[in-house]
Structures are given as C-alpha cells and as structure tokens.
Design a protein that fits this description.
about 400 residues, alpha/beta, six-stranded mixed sheet, 17 helices, about 40% helix
Length: about 400
C-alpha cells in the first residue's frame, strides 16, 4: 500500500477539487434529509485517506460507513453517491426516475428518490425571471372564494396535477386512524376496576395473616382490532392506488397489526415493504415485489386466494377489512359472490371503498359490483381527501358487532 501522503494524489488535476466536492456531496445529503454535519464530513475525508481513492467501491463503502448512521438511510445514500460522483449535473434527470410515477418496467439503475432529485436541483440557482410589466391595481371580490386547501379537499385524485398530488400526499401523511377499540377476554389489575379479583385478594391477604383488608379489583383490557387492506392496482385503479398507497403507508407506520395486500391479476403481500418508515424506500421495494401493476383484474381469484392462504393468519381478533376496488373484474362475476361472502364472515367489519361512487348517478350495473355489494357492511367512496377523512371518522366510531362481541 502506498504511503498516506501519496494518497492525496497531487499529480491528478482533480485532487484539489476532492475536498470541495466532498463538502458539496454532504450538502446534497443534508438537503435530502440525512443528518450530516461537520463531524461526518471530517470523518469521510479521513476515511478517503485510508483507501485506494481510485477504487469506486472502496470510496462508496468508506463514505457510507462514516457519514451514515441509520440503516434506513443507506438506500438514499447509494442513490446520491451514484448520481453525484458520476455526474454532479445529473439532478435534472433524477425527477424522471421518481418511482411513484409508475411501477411498470423499472429502469436498470435504481430509481432515485424525489427528495434526492429536489436536493440536486437545489444546487443550481433558478434562472432569472424577466421583469414583469407594472400591473394596474385590481379590486378582487373574494366573497365566494375558497382557499387552495379547501379546494384540494374536494378535488378528485384523477384530476389533480403533479403539484396537487404532492400536496395531497402531505395531507394524507397527517391522517390518524384510531380504530374503534374492542374489549378482549383478558383483564388487568386496576384500583378503579369494575370487577373484583378474588384470587389476587386472597393472595394479598396472606401478608396480613389471612385477614382481608382490601378487595383487589381488575378491569377488562380494550384493544384496537387488526386492520387488513386489500387494494386493487389494475389499470382502472392505478391513479387512485398510487395515492392510496401513501395512506396505507402512513397507517402502517402509525399503528400496529396492519396487513396490506395488493392485487391485480394476482395477490401480493406488501406488509413488510410498507413497514419501512422512509416512503420512497418503501415504494421502491413495493415496485419490485408487485409484478402486475396497471394490468388486468381478477378480483374473485385474488379474494379467494386471500381466504385460503391468509385469512386465518391475519383476520383474527375482530379484524376490520378495507377492500379498495372499483369492482370491474375481467372474469365477470365468476366466484366473486362466494369469495366476498366468505371474507365477510371471517372478519368483524368489511368496508368496500369504490372510487366510482364519486359520480352522483352511480348505478351498480356491472356483474362484479352486483355480486359483491350484498356481502359488504359498508359501501363508501374513496376519490379525494374529504372521502378519506370521512373514512377515518367512520372507522373510529362504534360499530354494531356481527357474531362474537369480544376480541381474543
């Protein structure tokens, strides 16, 4: 190994630019959301002196080991390293590789996150705007106008622009889903409990020679039920599914016992992928796990497969099921009524979310919708932010039980 002084590479014309490039790279990571400070920059510079600087793999491993402290930031770091050190001006192309613009046929290089694309675009100042001509004073009548936020609440997801979709995703991340808590069969010691605990009372009396001085009490434990989401990602649902995945991701990271499944022509369990706290990394893993995005729809076969392979695992303890689909099945209504009926009998509450309900004159004319509709507990629209807020409020209210009262 050459001496350390030789690793500074004074003979190379780019050696003098290495410290400045390292600082620029650290600023890029900081704008992308990584906690990078002077200590990480100094540690990265020291690490580069201990390796062969011409080896790209060694340089990437050294900088990642010294500048990144959390495992969930590794993926974003690798994207930033590949874009910055290959071409610092490649940020203008990073937006085209955003993963949520479509899951079909991902490019060979790993897609960069939107945060990284925005951070790299921040390196270049905006072009100067031409001077605007002076405007005459105008008087605006704002009597019946509404704010942009109120307009966004009622706008259909399919009619939103890219900027409006981004604003809607920010609003979705703020939604909280406190499901209706159900009583269980288990009890917990409590001084203000409503039930007398005779066993604990006798045990405590042994400390006073068998004399009972106080009655121990207990209360029943309440717990929110599991939530299972079955989301249609076929071609007719792709625009809504892209937005609703942000809602599913937010719910998955806000509470426990959430199980998520996507289906088009086949059923895919994406629970593990959506548990990643970084939404960009989570959606990239989903894109690799789901092979049939924006394809056909086999609702009956997908629900039947869920009933056979997953219902016993995830539908216990009074689970609530959200079925997100427009009901347009390429196989017609073949086996759809039987599969939906069995799904309803296996859970405590089956809620069907259909974006077609946004139309005022909606009529259940397709065979799939007519087959499923008699076997659901609730039929709700899901096409804008207002419908999602109404869903959250409805799931938090007390709902009449079907069958067993207690969750095990």
């Amino acid at each position: 190994m050459p001496p350390r002084a030789a690793l500074a590479l004074p003979d190379r014309p780019s050696a003098g630019a290495l410290p400045a490039n390292l600082v620029s790279f650290a600023r890029l990571l900081r704008r992308a959301g990584l906690p990078i400070g002077p200590a990480e920059i100094l540690a990265g510079a020291a690490a580069l002196e201990c390796i062969e600087i011409g080896d790209r793999t060694q340089a990437q491993a050294a900088l990642r080991a010294t500048m990144v402290h959390r495992h969930e930031h590794f993926l974003l770091f690798d994207h930033a390293f590949g874009l910055f050190w290959r071409d610092p001006e490649a940020g203008r192309h990073a937006a085209a590789m955003a993963m949520m613009d479509g899951f079909k046929d991902p490019p060979k290089p790993a897609p960069a996150s939107r945060r990284l694309a925005e951070a790299m675009r921040g390196d270049r100042p905006d072009p100067p705007k031409p001077p605007e001509p002076p405007k005459e004073e105008e008087q605006l009548d704002v009597t019946f106008t509404v704010s942009d936020r109120e307009r966004l609440q009622g706008m259909d997801f399919e009619a939103m622009s890219a900027d409006e979709i981004a604003a809607a995703k920010d609003e979705i991340r703020k939604l909280v889903l406190p499901l209706d808590a159900r009583p269980t069969r288990r009890f917990r010691a409590s001084r203000l409990g409503t039930h007398a605990d005779l066993r604990l009372t006798v045990r405590e009396s042994l400390r006073t020679g068998g004399e009972i001085l106080d009655i121990a009490r207990r209360r029943r434990i309440t717990r929110t039920p599991p939530l299972v989401v079955l989301c249609d990602i076929s071609g007719s649902m792709s625009r809504y599914a892209q937005v609703l995945l942000h809602f599913i991701h937010a719910v998955t990271n806000d509470r426990d016992r959430v199980h998520s499944f996507l289906f088009g022509t086949r059923l895919t369990n994406v629970t593990r992928q959506l548990r990643h706290r970084d939404p960009e990394a989570a959606f990239e893993m989903v894109s690799h796990a789901v092979p049939d995005w924006s394809g056909g729809t086999r609702i009956g076969e997908s629900i039947e497969l869920f009933n056979k392979a997953w219902s016993r695992r995830v539908l216990g303890q009074g689970a609530v099921v959200l079925l997100i689909t427009d009901g347009l099945d390429r196989e017609g209504a073949k086996g759809l009524a039987e599969a939906t009926e069995r799904l309803r009998k296996s859970c405590r509450r089956l809620v069907w979310l259909n974006p077609l309900l946004r139309y005022a004159g909606f009529q259940p004319k397709s065979q799939g919708i007519r087959a499923m509709l008699p076997h659901v507990d609730e039929f709700r629209p899901v096409h804008n932010l207002a419908s999602l807020r109404e869903l959250v409020a409805a799931l938090s209210e007390r709902h009449p039980t079907r069958g067993r009262e207690f969750a095990t």
